Amino acid sequence: MMADSALRHVVLSDGADLDGFRRAVRALASARVSPDAVVFMTGAAPDLFGDSFAADAPPVALPKGVGALIASVVCHRDPERYALLYRLVFRVLNGERALLEVPSDPLVHRLDLMARTIRRDLHKMHAFLRFRRVAGEEGERFVAWFEPDHFILEATAQFFIDRFRSLDWTILTPVGSMRWDRLSLVYGPPAAREDAPAGDRFEEGWRDYYESTFNPARVNPKAMRAEMPKKYWRNMPEAASITALIREAPGRMAGMIDREATMPAKRKPERALEAMWDQEPKTLAALNAVIAAAGPLVPGATQAVPGEGPVGAALAFVGEQPGDQEDLQGRPFVGPAGQLLSRALREAGIDREAAYLTNAVKHFKFEERGKRRIHAKPTAGEVKHYRPFLMKELALVRPRLVVALGATALLALSGKALPVTKVRGPLRLDDYDGYVTVHPSYLLRIPDEAEKRRAYAAFVDDLSRINAMVA
Amino acid sequence: MDVLLSRKLRILADAAKYDASCASSGAPKRKAGRDGLGSTTGAGICHAYTPDGRCVSLLKILLTNYCLYDCAYCVNRRSSNVKRAKFSVEEVVTLTVEFYKRNYIEGLFLSSGIIKTPDHTMEEMLRVAKSLRQEHQFRGYIHLKTIPEASPWLIEQAGLWADRLSINLELPTADSLAALAPEKSGPSIRGAMAQMHERIVEAKEEKRRFSPAGQSTQVIVGADATTDADVLRTSASLYGAYKLKRVYYSAFSPIPDSSAILPLKPPPMQRENRLYQADWLLRYYGFGVEEIASGGEEGMLDLAVDPKLAWALKNRGQFPVDVNTGSREMLLRVPGLGARAVDRIVSARRHTNLRLADVARLTSSLKRARAFLTATDHHPRAQLDAAALRERLVEKPQQLSLFG
After folding, report:
1. Fewest beta carbons within 10 Å, which of A172, A214, B335, B360?
2. Pairing relation of β-strands A425-429 and A432-437?
C-alpha cells in the first residue's frame, strides 16, 4: 500500500477518549499515514469536522508497554497528547519496535513525564479524596467531591470498587461523576462542590488525629507541600488545621526545651511491677483457657482440644492433631485411632488414665468434602504456631518420658523434621527423655491385613518398652 | 464524634507519634469481598502529610499510654507526668473502620503501653486485629507492635492477623538498653525477632499468610553515645539475620516532660537523614558498612554531603565512570544516579550512544553526577580532582525532608 500524505483531521471526544484514539490509530496505521499529516482535535462534533474512518481497520499489534503508556497518557490534559502518542506508534511500527527501551529519546522522555504526571494524579486522588457520610432510608451512603488535574475519573474507578465494594458511594468531580451501588458502576455528568454534603461527624475526630500526630519539634512545611500541594487543601478537612499548627510549633517546641526535667509524680508501683513479671499460666486449666481463647491457628475446627491426664504423669503421649470425633467432643484420642491406642496401651500394660495424652496441634484442620470433614495435615509452620503451647503444657505436666506418636509430634517436640522410621525408639526430645514411634492412625490405614497385624504388634512392643523405661 | 472518644484519640495519637514508621507497603494485593471493607495495593498510600513533612498513612495510636515500663527516652514511661488514657477494643475498631470508610487511612498501626502484664496487653491488641479481620472482614493494612516480653504463643497469633509486625530495638547497644530501658532486654528482643523471622519464612514457603509484609524495627539516635557506624553495623546485622524490611531511625527529639538522664540537646535532624541515606546504600546500592563509614570521620557520617557523595569524594580514583560502558555496580556508585536512573541508562545504551543531554533526561541530579561520569561528548577532566569539588556540591543549609 502507498503512503497516504493527504492531511487528516481526527476528532475525539473531550476527556480521555481511549476508544476513539484506538479506532483512529487502527485506521491511520493501516493507511500508513505520517504523523505530520494528522491533526487531532477534541470536543467538536466529529461529523462536522472529522474525517470518517473505515470501522473495519484491523487491530494494530503493539508491544505491551506501548499500550499501557497510551492508556495512561490519553488521560492527560495536554492537547498535544494524541499527536505525540500517534508519533510514538508510527515510529514503533516503522522500524523502532524497541523505542520504549530508549528512555533518553526526547519523545519517549516527554511521554514518560506525562505518564508520571498521570500516575501522580491517580495516586493523589486515591490518597486525598475524602468521603462524607449521608444517612438515608436504605442505609448509609458516602459522597466525595474531588478535583483531579487530569481526565482520570474512570481510571480510578476500579481502585475505589476494590476498596469499598460493600459501600454505596458516589464520587463527584468537575468533569464527571460516578456512583457505585454495591453492584454496578454508573458514570454521570459533571458536578459542583455544592452537590456534595458539607460535613461529616467523624471529620472533627480526624482533625484531632491529624493535629495530634504532628510533631512540632520537627516542623517542615516545605516537605509537606512537596507531597501535598496547597491546591488539594480546600477539599481535605484536616488541612484547616495546618496554618495554626505551623504558627504554634516554635512556641510549643521552646516550651518543651525550657521546661526542666520534671520529678516523677508517682512512687514506683512495686506490687504492680512484681505482678507484671508473674504472667505465666501456672496450671493446665489456666493454659487451656489461653489456648481456647486463641482460637484456631489452622483453618477449620469447632473448638480447641486440650490434653488430658494427671499432672506429674510419668508418660506423656503426643499425637498430631484432633480428628473429627475429638473436635466434636473436645477430648483427645476418642476417635478410631484413639480407641486403637487404648487397646494397645492395655495390651502393653499401661494405664491410659494414669498417662497424659495430648496433641501437637490443638485444633482439627480439615477440608470439607460434601458432608464429610477430611483430615488435612498441618504444615510445618502451623505445627510451630502451636509449639509454644505444647512446650508449656509439658513443662506443667513434667512427665518422665515423652512419646512422640508420628512425624508431626516428632517435629513439634524436636523442632526439626525427622523421619520416624529412622529414629524410631528412644530419643532425646528438647528437654525430655523421649521415645519415637508411629501414630495409631497409621496402623488403621495399612490395607494389607497381615502387614497391619505385624505393624500393630511392633507398636505394642514399643509401648511395652516405653512402659519398662518408666517402671 | 463523641467528646470523650475525641479526647482519648488526642492523647493516644500524641503518645504514638514518636514511632517513625507509618508504611503501608509490602502487603499482598487484596480486595474487599462482597461484604468486606478495604484493599491493599502493595505499594502503600500516604493519605495526608502533616506540617512536619511526615506521611499519614495508618491510624497510628496506642491502645493505652498507661505503662509499667520506665524507659527514659519514652514520653509514656510510668514516671512521666503526661495525661493518660485507654481505648477499649471496640473503640479502636470503630475508629479504624469509620476512618477507613471515609478514605482517611490505609489501616491501623497499633502499639501500646504495658498494662497489667505484657501478655494481657498483647492479648488486647490481638482482640482488635481479630475483630477487624473476622467481624468486619477488614482487608486493609494492619501493623502490630509486638511486645517481646509477651509469651511466645502470642507472637504466633499476631502474624496471622497483621500485615506487618515490629519490635523496636530502641537502642543500638545492650549497655544503652540496660541503662535507659531497665524493663527491656536485648536477648528477648532478638529472640522474638528470630521467632517472627522463622515463621514469616515458613509461611511464605507454605503459601500461607503470616505477617506477609515482614517485620521492621526502630532505633533511637542521639539518646546515647553510639556512633553512626555502630548504628549501621547493628542495622546490617538485623537485615542479615532476620531479613527485616526496614530499620527506622528516630532522632531523639525533645518530648514534653523529659527525663533528667537524657542529653539536653537533640541531635541534628540531618543525622537522622544521613542514616536513612546510608541505610538505602546498604540495601539497594551494594555498599558495605565500612565503606559508608569511611566517607565520614571517626564513625560519624558527613553531615554536609550525602554518604554516597562523601564516599565518592574520598575515592575519586575510581571515577569517572563511563555511562556507555561502566558496570551497573559502578554506575550505582555515581553520586546523583539513583537505581532507577541506572536501570534507564543500562536500557538506553543498548540502543544508542549516550551523550550528556541524554543522561540529563535520565536523572534529575545531573549537577552532582557530571563530575563523576563520562559520556560520548563529555569528560570531567580536572573537575573531578579539583579541591573545590566538595565545596561546590555541599548542600546549602536548609531544613530537609526526612521522609521524602
Report:
1. B360
2. antiparallel
Please tell me which of the candidates B6, B80, B202 has its beta carbon nearest to residue A208.
Answer: B6
What mean pLDDT comes out for the span A275-284? 94
- Do the Cβ atoms of A224 and B49 come within 8 Å? yes
**Which among A214, A253, A280 has CB closest to B51?**
A214
Using a CB–CB cutoff of 8 Å, tell me whether B243 touches chain A.
no
C-beta atoms surrounding A164 within 10 Å = 22
B107, amino acid identity: G
Residues whose CB falls within 8 Å of the CB of residue A323, separated by 6 or more in sequence, listed in order: A335, A336, A337, A364, A375, A441
Nearest to A205 among B9, B101, B260 (CB): B9
User: Distances from the Cα of B85 to the Cαs of A252, A269, B74, B125, in angstroms?
Assistant: 22, 18, 16, 15
Q: Where in chain B is the domain with CATH 3.20.20.70?
A: 3-267
In contact, B26 and B214? CB cutoff 8 Å: yes
- DSSP classification of residue B19: -
Question: Is B348 close to A215, i.e. CB distance below 8 A?
Answer: no
Given CB atoms, is A264 within the 8 Å cutoff of chain B? Answer: yes
Read off the amino acid at residue B124.
E
Please, what are the domains in chain A?
8-123 (no CATH), 129-195 (no CATH), 203-257 (no CATH), 284-470 (3.40.470.10)
pLDDT digits (tens, 9 = 90+) for A30-88: 999 999 999 999 886 555 556 666 667 888 899 999 999 999 999 999 999 999 999 99
Going by pLDDT thresholds of 50, 70 and 90, the confidence category of residue B402 is very low
DSSP-assigned beta bridge partners for residue A170 = A143, A179
A109 and chain B in contact, CB less than 8 A: yes
* Measured distance CA(A291)–CA(B312) in Å, rounded: 57
Write out chain A residues lying below 8 Å of B101, CB-based.
131, 133, 142, 164, 167
Query: Nearest 5°: phi and psi at B116?
Result: 60, -80
List, in sequence order, the alpha helices (H) in A179-279: 203-213, 221-227, 242-258, 270-276
d(CA B403, CA B43): 16
ipTM, two decimals, is 0.94
Give the pLDDT band (50/70/90) at residue A1.
very low
Largest CA distance in chain B: 70
CB contact under 8 A, B9 and A261: no
Q: Domain B3-267 is of which CATH architecture? A: Alpha-Beta Barrel (3.20)
pLDDT band for B137, please (50, 70, 90 cuts). very high
Rounded CA Rg of chain A: 36
What is the Cα–Cα distance from B236 to B233, expressed in whole angstroms?
Answer: 5
Would you tell me which residues 120-159 of chain B have a C-beta closer than 8 angstroms to some C-beta of chain A?
120, 123, 130, 137, 151-153, 156-157
